[in-house]
UniProtKB/TrEMBL annotation:
Alphabetized UniProt keyword annotations: Isomerase, Rotamase
Domain PPIase FKBP-type: 37-123
Enzyme Commission number, as recorded: 5.2.1.8
The protein's name in its UniProt record: Peptidyl-prolyl cis-trans isomerase
PROSITE patterns on file: FKBP_PPIASE
Keyword Aminoacyl-tRNA synthetase: no
Catalytic activity: [protein]-peptidylproline (omega=180) = [protein]-peptidylproline (omega=0)
Length: 123
């Protein structure tokens, strides 16, 4: 059973990084559904696909974050809508839907990223 009150743990990915966005529901929520452009309240964990190293986590800061989907990377804009409050979803986001190609100026440019997102609320 998945505990949505604790930081998720990820197994190291196997095989080559996917070229398309992967959306995997770990827990299907039963609350309101996130619509494109909604404001979402989430807890999340982000790791690099190739190294498995964590690069960001709201869990590490001890509080969820709240922001409009339209201000996020394309992988989140495409991967969160349809998710319901109370759910946990894993997104595997290729570089073109994350921070762009290597050399784009962002330290995560050119990297495939894995996020585990807990949807706590929508507005």
């Amino acid at each position: 059973m998945t505990d949505l009150n604790s930081k998720p743990e990820l197994d190291f990915p196997e095989g080559p990084a996917p070229e398309a966005l992967e959306i995997i529901d770990i827990v299907v929520g039963e609350g309101p559904e996130a619509a494109p452009g909604a404001k979402v309240d989430v807890h999340y964990l982000g790791v690099e696909y190739d190294s498995g190293e964590e690069f960001d986590s709201s869990w590490g800061r001890g509080q969820s974050i709240n922001f409009p989907l339209g201000s996020l990377i394309a992988g989140w804009q495409q991967g969160i809508p349809g998710m319901k409050v109370g759910g946990r979803r894993k997104l595997v986001v290729p570089p073109h839907l994350a921070y762009g190609p290597a050399g784009s100026g962002h330290h995560l440019g050119g990297k495939t990223l894995i996020f585990v997102i807990d949807l706590l609320g929508v507005s």
